[in-house]
Amino acid sequence: MAYAVRYRLEFTDIQRDEWRVDILEDSFAGAISAMIPSGSPLIIEWLTPGDDLVLFPIKGSMATINVECTTNFQYIGLYNEQDLVRPVNIYKNEVLFWTGWLSNEYTEPYDNVPYTVSITAADGLGILKNIPYKNAGVDY
């Protein structure tokens, strides 16, 4: 599979950090579509409470990307019924900060344009519990 950037969101926060969100698509060959940030353009939420690495060694996370739609159903093409279809890479000052996959949950309000759409992505750690780990033929 050869993934290429399909959508890109760029913005600067109040601390003057440069952020870039790239949404990739398999076998895409075309121009990158720029997304317009809206409200709080990026929220990364760590899903495990506290900082206790003994009790919570794996910290899953979720990213919410808020963009402005200028036409109805502008980002409906991001929806897919399968998991792990579109990778998301988030860069802070040109350094990879977070990576994950778009969620298959997509909602859009029935309202006049422009309006804000929230696109969610997860790092995928939550689905690892459903995948058996085999080491040299031994299941764990």
Give an account of the 3D structure.
By secondary structure, the protein is mostly beta strands. It has strands at 3-12, 18-26, 33-46, 61-69, 87-92, 95-102, 115-122, 134-135, 138-139. The chain contains no helices and 9 strands. The strands form 2 sheets. Strands 1-2-5-6-7-4-3 form a 7-stranded mixed barrel. The chain has a two-stranded antiparallel sheet with strand order 8-9. The chain is globular. The two termini are 29 Å apart. The model has no long low-confidence stretch (mean pLDDT 86).
Helix and strand arrangement:
Blueprint: E1 3-12, E2 18-26, E3 33-46, E4 61-69, E5 87-92, E6 95-102, E7 115-122, E8 134-135, E9 138-139
Parallel strand pairs: 1-3
Antiparallel strand pairs: 1-2, 2-5, 3-4, 4-7, 5-6, 6-7, 8-9
Question: Overall 3D geometry?
Answer: globular
Tell me what portion of residues adopts beta-strand conformation.
Answer: over 45%
State the order of secondary-structure elements, H for helix, E for strand.
EEEEEEEEE
List unreliable stretches of 5+ residues.
none
Alpha-carbon Rg, integer: 17 Å
Structural class: mainly beta
Proportion in helices: under 10%
The biggest sheet amounts to: 7 strands, mixed, barrel
Spatial ordering of strands, largest sheet: 1-2-5-6-7-4-3
Number of β-strand runs: 9
Q: What count of helical segments does DSSP give?
A: 0
- How much is the average pLDDT? 86
How far apart are the termini?
29 Å
List keywords for this structure.
140 residues, mainly beta, seven-stranded mixed beta barrel, two-stranded antiparallel sheet, 0% helix
